[in-house]
Design a protein that fits this description.
It contains no helices and no strands. By secondary structure, it is mostly loops. The mean pLDDT is 85.
């Protein structure tokens, strides 16, 4: 999936993913993780 500046991507919990910068200038991303309770089995 190619993401352009200003776009948003949602990656569900426990989904394998990676980032690859395909241009010569640096890129920045913001990763937001929810509360720890969302990641534990009950």
């Amino acid at each position: 999936m190619e993401v352009k500046p200003g776009e948003t991507v949602f990656v569900p919990s426990n989904t394998a993913h990676q980032f690859l910068n395909i241009v010569s200038h640096p890129f920045t991303f913001l990763c937001i993780k929810g509360a720890e309770e969302l990641y534990t089995e009950q």
